[in-house]
Amino acid sequence: MIKRFALLLMISPALPAAAQTPQFAPSSLKSVTVYSRGAEMTHTARLTVSKGVSKVVVTKVAGNIDESSIQVSAPGGVTVMSATFGRNFLPEIAEKPAYRKLQDSLESVKSSLSRLRNTRTAQEGTLALLDKNQALGGNGANVAELTKLAEYYTAKQIELRNSIYGLVEKEAKLAALMERIESQLAELNENPEAAGGQIALQVMAGADVNGPMEIRYVARDASWSTHYDLKLENISKPLKLVYKANVRQHTGLDWKNVKLTLNTGNPSSAGVVPELATWFLNPVVRLRGTADALAGRALGLQEVVVTGYGSEGSANMNKKAKMAPPPRR
User: Fold this and answer.
1) Is 90 exceeded by the pLDDT of residue 155?
2) Where is the signal peptide (predicted)?
3) Domain range summary for the chain, segments of one domain joined by +
């Protein structure tokens, strides 16, 4: 019974933190170091938490990152207990200018399409009413009146039918445009890079804190490669070599007004100087002998060649020794 009570005491402080509503902290991209594969991106955000354990969601980060590379520098008095990367598509996309622009365009197209359909419906009703009056207008009318009535109906019908045909064409174009916009919006919803990512932090503060924090991580969808331009004005002047870089990134973030650094290293390496192990080679002994092909007997001398390395890494040793011939029977 005592053990159960102690377990409840250990769990109870974590319950209020789990039930807390997470706080969202939009981040700003400050600097990027681009490698041949990947990029280290540095963000800053405002951390405002109360005393105790809180969950903070850092938004506006890259859409595809190495979760093991996340580093968070929090203000003094704040301990970061965990950092988890994830995505939340719709809230992030709604904040993007491209998404808002598409959404506004879609609403405008829908409004224009509705007005066109209303106009076409009204004109089709007028055309139906005109056809009905034309059938009734011939009763008791003379030839001149019928001629004028026919000319009026003909001109009016042509005008209405041409207008309706034009409205139908415009409706078809607007419907196709609306379909394309909806497809683009669907792509933004389904594309993790376009949506961006979020980093959920579990932090513990000894007091109320309101200060800046720095977040660093390695994004996978970025790289750079070298390019050269050769310039020669004439043969009497030296050749000019212009060193350039082609930077590519699909992180889902705009790299505007960002400090950019190009690096030829590898962000996944530990940066520790390797230790080279010593190789020890065992001595090798080879026996060289010649035989008399006619008599089938060994010659009087055999040559022994010893090639090897000392255990202390000494120089090569090549020694030749003459051995006495075997006794004759």
Assistant:
1) no
2) 1-19
3) 16-87+199-222+256-267, 97-192, 284-322
